[in-house]
Amino acid sequence: MNSDNKRQSLTESHSEQAGSGGLQEEVSRRKFLGMAAFTGLAGAGLSVGLASCGKGPEKGGGGSASHTATAPAASEAGGGGLSYHVDPGQLDTYYSMYSGGHSGEVRIIGEPSGRVIMRIPVFNPDPMSGWGITNESKAILGTKEDGSLKYTTGDTHHVHGSYKDGTYDGKYFWVNDKIHSRIARIRGDVMVCDKITELPNVQGFHGIFPDKRDPVDPKINHTTRVFCGSEFRIPHPNDGTNMEDTDAYYGLFTCVDAETMEVRWQVKVDGNMDLVATSYDGKLAAVNQYNTEKGVTFSGMMSAERDSCLFFNIARIEEAVKAGKVISSPDGSNVPIVDGTKAANSDPKTALTCYVPIPKSPHGVNASPDGKYFVCSGKLSPTASVIDLSLILKWFDGELKDPRDAVVAEPEIGLGPLHTSFDGRGNAYTTLFLDSQIVKWNVEAAIKAYKGDKNAKVIIDKIDVHYQPGHLNASMNETKEADGKWLVIGNKFSKDRFLPVGPMHPENEQLIDISGEKMRLVHEAPVYPEPHDFILIRRDVIKTRQIFTMDEFPLAVKDQKESRVERNGNKATIYLTSMAPAYSLTEFKVKQGDEVTIILTNHDKVEDLCHGFAIPKYNINFVVSPQETKSVTFIADKPGVYWCYCTHFCHALHLEMRSRLLVEP
Ligand SMILES: [Cu+2]
After folding, report:
1. Could you list which residues have their CB under 5 Å from ion ligand 1?
2. Which residues lie closer than 8 Å to 361 by C-beta, 6 or more apart?
């Protein structure tokens, strides 16, 4: 069996059931992988809800897994006929904005090719661009009193974009840092991070989602707030005085202003918060909750039969904030905090929050593109719960007795369901972590089945992925323009899918054509660990500029004649410009011990003509794009000659593009 056939058998093994010894070998390998994941959970005390499921269609996951992705074979098998192939010189049709996990960055991947187009440093210092090295980036990242970075680590999980009229407008992207509870914003026009805010009073900031319009003012049909969940319950204040009373720990849901990036308000809740979803009418945000038990150990977090999908009534919360119905902020900050705990919100007509019971430790909550439902997956239960948003609003009006009655379907879809995506044709796609599969199911059929219709065909298709999928996202899925073409799967393990490179493996991004009745796995690509989530945006939505304007930078050295060394006591400021293949000063002299600031403006206006600026032994390198200005500050503590040189290839005389830093003893 050659390696291509081997790959194909891996994708088909689950459904084909039969075949040669080689195929059986693959089946058992898959089984082993699934069992390993299962044992990991079961060994930790899990015993509930994992039986009696995984009975998908007899023949799922069909279609061709070949690398040619030919249309005719695909349509015969009932799969779509899309090709992932992008010829040299051709452009991808979708931008995928990708989190970089504990690399701390965000990436832009082109789909359907799977090519990594750009990496955007966010929470991670990056010597390519100078992020964390230049004064401008340090000011965004935050520094200690000595000028060094406050944090050099970050853990990005979820990237989400700003909305207008229920779809992406390409203006901003936000991403969380789970380690230090920070939210960063990336400008969609230049794909650079421009603001970072550290959330007060929380740890384990995980889920994030922008609102899609204002809950009250119909004129505001775009994103103005970004909601942030926090996973770890902590004592308040967290100053070491009350560490043992774990029952008193709590988490806070945070609203950040989309423009100013300031924290608008927080809500105290029971339990913890994981992912976030927002409704298309702006009225509701929700988080899935595990550990409503308030456990602080593994088994303690999994003892309850049901956790919650917790809804926030945004308009009421903001009314309460306005009316001053707030509790004092534990860290002494001015952020208004309202009480969203169950005990304080028993009357639906005044409640700020609504706790909808969902089976065991749900993971993931996602909004359907028709605006009607949120789907919350069971993780430790083989179910996905469909919540009707109109019924949640009814509960808030006092017209629905039990929040659980807002659940209108709860199909059994497979083992370890996590996240759900949609195709805009009424179908949902959910990752099954333990089964290493994607299940395609129909939402309306699930609702009918829940009402007792035994003929409703809920599960439409299942397909194997490699291996243990986490997030998935369909093209334009999280908008009203969900187009049902591509589905990208972020697999947590790649194991044998790529050339071995040692104990550390990449993750595996797989691409599924969902344009047909059956899903068709057409492509895969390794990704550097460890991305979590991504959104697929039609390329016409993103409108980037290729050249900055000098006026955007207050320090810009606008005229090359302004190039000079300016002294003020022991402070030396170097005003410098670049234009291929030269810097405006061939040398600049400072005294040992000086605090030196170099301001560099790139005068080149040619697209793609960037320059670098590196100083040996001073640990400095950064890049200036066309018409961009950046600055660095350092102490000239080493006497001698230091050749500053261009690190970013710019010209036939790139090697000659240098300047001398002379440090007089
Ligand atoms: Cu250069």
Report:
1. 611, 646, 650, 657
2. 290, 291, 301, 302, 307, 378, 379, 380, 381
Structure tokens at 459: 């599960």
Domain 199-376 class in CATH: mainly beta
623 CA to middle of ligand 1, Å?
9
475 C-alpha to center of ligand 1: Å? 38
CB atoms within 10 A of CB 3: 7
Q: Do the beta carbons of residue 165 and residue 478 sit within 8 Å?
A: no
Q: What is the pLDDT of residue 293?
A: 60
Distance (angstroms) between ligand 1 centre and the Cα of 549 equals 19
**How far is the centre of ligand 1, averaged over its atoms, from the C-alpha of 108 (Å)?**
25
For the stretch 543-590, pLDDT in tens is 999 999 999 999 999 999 999 999 999 999 999 999 999 999 999 999
Residue 388 contacts residue 408 (beta carbons within 8 Å): yes
Task: Report the residue count for the chain.
Answer: 665
Which amino acid is residue 84, in one-letter code? Y
**Ligand 1: centre distance to CA 572 (Å):** 24
Taking the centre of ligand 1 as the mean of its atom positions, its distance from the CA of residue 622, in whole angstroms, is 12
Ligand 1 geometric centre to CA of 550 (Å): 18
Packing angle, helices 3-16 and 21-42, rounded to 10: 60
Tokens 């004092």 map to which residue?
A: 328
Question: pTM for the whole thing?
Answer: 0.89
Q: Where are the domains of the chain?
A: 199-376, 550-664
CA of 366 to the centre of ligand 1 (A): 46
Give the mean model confidence (pLDDT) for residues 381-407: 97
pLDDT band with cut points at 50, 70 and 90 for residue 592: very high
Which string of DSSP letters, residue by residue, matches 463-530? EE-SS-EEEEEEBTTTSTT---SEEEEEES--TTSS---SSPPPEEEEEEE-SSSB-EEEEEEEE-S-
Q: Is the peptide bond before 235 cis (omega within 30 degrees of 0)?
A: no
Instruction: Give, in degrees to the nearest 5, the angle at Cα 369 between 57 and 507.
Output: 60
pLDDT band at 361 (very low <50, low <70, confident <90, very high): confident
Distance 608 CA to ligand 1 centre (A): 11
CA of 583 to the centre of ligand 1 (A): 8
Which CATH superfamily includes the segment(s) 550-664? Cupredoxins -  blue copper proteins (2.60.40.420)
For residue 597, report the distance from its CA to the centre of ligand 1, in Å.
20
Return d(Cα 261, Cα 607) in angstroms, integer: 31
